[in-house]
Amino acid sequence: MHPVKVTLLLSYISVASGSAAIITPALPTIEHTWHLAASQTEWLVSIFMLGYLIGQMLYGTLANRLGRLGALRTGLIVNLVGVAMCLIASGYGSYLGLLLGRFVSALGASAGLSCTFMLLNESLPEQRARHAMSFAAVSFVLSIGLATFVGGIVTHQGHWVDMFWILGAYGVVMLASTWLFTETLTMPVAISWRSIVRQYRQGFGSRSLCIYALFVGLVTLATYCYSAAAPGIAARFLHMNAAQYGAANLSNMAGMLVGAFIAASLLKRTQGLWL
């Protein structure tokens, strides 16, 4: 697979993280204009993460039935439906509708992570696939940092609802780009709930996998807790507007980006020791 295609494929990982982060600079604005408490607006991030969590448990099974690209396209379409729901809810001033749209959008966007890892593993030689996946963190960091920056500019210069038009356009481009790739599933597997339960039981029986998942989960939790709380803190105590917050957040992205490249380099140097 050409390096450009590998880079494009890695970008599907960032569909969910970018969608989760782009609205965060607008949280204080939504809180003020819709007369909500800070704890209520933070649910716009929390409900997205709940949908993202549930979606992760669905697309592995769907990818074995519909194919990797079939599951990915299904998720991207569901994501677009969720974005459309957010636009409609915002137009009617429905906070509950906005929460529901965010949840549906997350259910769809979560396909990017699961399906991307499958496509990379099945399209590339093992060592190259490992190296490519080590840059997944770079995709996460760039998407969160750039989405927060764009969200801040849009909120300050225009209207925060415009972010959903940006997410919609981005989703359409990502959906259309799936036709650049070739399906890697050779034999579809029928959905069997008994088999799914057995596989999850085997996964939870792996101590090393559970420890790894715990650490990844804690880091992810810290990241999105920061994303939900930081805009309000910046507005109340530092008197930053949305654009200033988005720009200041780039320093956080820079630190995470350096760490991601260091991690990728260390993995490339040491992966032979673990094989």
Number of extended strands: 0
Q: What is the number of independent domains?
A: 1
- Low-pLDDT stretches: none
Largest sheet: none
Structure commentary:
- The protein is mainly α.
- Helices cover 82% and strands 0% of the residues.
- The protein contains 15 helices and no strands.
- The protein is globular, with a radius of gyration of 19 Å.
- The relative contact order is 0.16.
- The mean pLDDT is 86.
Summarize the structure.
It is built from 15 helices and no strands. The chain is 82% helix and 0% strand.
Keywords:
275 residues; mainly alpha; Growth Hormone, Chain: A; globular
Topology:
Layout (H helix, E strand, L loop, with lengths): L2 H9 L2 H8 L5 H7 L4 H4 L1 H14 L2 H8 L1 H25 L2 H15 L1 H13 L2 H8 L2 H22 L4 H16 L15 H12 L2 H31 L4 H33 L1
Helix pairs in contact: 1-9, 2-8, 2-11, 5-8, 5-14, 6-7, 7-8, 7-9, 7-12, 9-10, 11-15
